[in-house]
Design goal:
Layout: E1 3-17, E2 22-36, E3 40-44, H1 51-58, E4 66-71, E5 74-75, H2 81-87, E6 91-94, H3 98-101, H4 108-118, H5 125-138, H6 143-146, H7 156-168, E7 174-178, H8 186-203, E8 206-211, H9 214-220, E9 223-228, E10 231-237, H10 238-243, H11 248-255, H12 276-280, H13 296-300, E11 306-308, E12 311-313
Parallel strand pairs: 3-8, 3-9, 6-7, 7-8
Antiparallel strand pairs: 1-2, 1-4, 4-5, 9-10, 10-12, 11-12
Helix pairs in contact: 5-7
Length: 319
């Protein structure tokens, strides 16, 4: 398959503390992955693992310390603001909170008319409503229910669908969805997730899906990468990664997912460290401090990637 997005050796370092006591945190450490055309690729992991920082870098909100980002074979990590704006026509974003996406004092349909004008989608006024109706139909929202309404008149699920419709106005080839269902009612999450599968299957859109929710990741993803403290620890087909996890951290994440049988009690086996920055600063494997299979080498050296059954795993167990 042809890659639409390629991230190579991406690193982002933040400096925290005062001028007299500064500490460098490697929020993203030498991360590499690719997103194929018409594919849902997921970055998964707990909060603070670096996945949202990667999204911000891809969107130009943060600058990488090192690394290369290529879109359709063209390097985009060093482009000018005017070129970045043009790129937004092809790369659209869906954020976590749909209510923060829209101004509560402004009618939602105004954003659609404005987007069509700014990106010069059409010069014919007769086409404007037709295009908006088409995109709303694709996400299951009627134009009559949408027109002349404020954000507060919609539910969270409706507003997130409308956010997706707005992203579709420019006919993008890549959508970056950062925790798009985390603030939507549980009963509506799968309907939103199904939209991403439809976009892939019906329109050939690629989706970079960013989440901490392994259940939706398993359902929607073609391939996925599991992140821990700024590093990808496991990457491969979603079914392989989640049904047969290789890395100890992926296993613990998998075991933390509640069983569907209500008669079984669920207790998470993932124990969070008291101070995240200690793991970021750790020499060797970042997970060694809470890994049940840690060896002495894990505390001294950082492991390479090893390929096991078609999955890349960053763990000395497979050396």
């Amino acid at each position: 398959m042809t890659e639409i997005l390629r991230v190579s050796n991406l690193t982002k370092i933040f400096t925290i503390g005062s001028i007299f006591s500064r500490t460098k945190i490697v929020a993203v450490n030498n991360v590499s992955f690719g997103v194929n055309r018409a594919e849902v690729f997921t970055l998964a992991g707990e909060s603070g693992c670096g996945k949202t920082t990667i999204a911000k870098i891809l969107l130009g909100f943060e600058h990488p310390t090192e690394g290369i980002i290529e879109y359709n074979g063209r390097r985009i990590d060093n482009i000018k603001p005017k070129e970045r704006f043009k790129l937004r026509k092809e790369i659209q974003t869906i954020f976590q909170n749909p209510f923060s996406t829209f101004n509560p004092l402004r009618k939602v349909d105004r954003y659609f008319f404005e987007a069509l004008r700014n990106f010069e989608i059409t010069e014919q006024e007769s086409d404007v409503v037709r295009i908006i109706k088409e995109k709303l139909d694709a996400v299951g929202v009627a134009y009559e229910e949408f027109c002349e309404k404020y954000p507060g008149e919609f539910s969270g699920g409706q507003l997130q669908r409308i956010s997706i419709a707005r992203a579709l106005l420019t006919n993008p080839t890549l959508i970056i969805a950062d925790e798009p269902v985390s603030m939507v009612d549980a009963s509506l999450r799968m309907s939103i997730v199904n939209l991403f599968k439809d976009l892939r299957d019906k329109f050939g859109v690629s989706v970079l899906y960013i989440t901490h929710d392994l259940a939706t990741a398993y359902y929607v993803s073609d391939r996925m990468a599991v992140m821990f403290r700024g590093e990808i620890v496991e990457l491969g087909r979603a079914d392989k990664v989640l049904q047969e996890p290789k890395h100890p951290y992926t296993r613990l994440l998998r075991e933390s997912v509640p069983e569907p049988d209500p008669s079984k009690r669920w207790t998470s086996k993932v124990v969070l460290a008291e101070q995240e920055h200690e793991e970021y600063l750790r020499t060797g494997c970042k997970f060694a401090g809470r890994c049940p299979t840690a060896m002495e080498i894990c505390k001294r050296e950082s492991p390479d990637y090893y390929e096991v059954d078609g999955v890349k795993v960053r763990c000395f167990l497979y050396k």
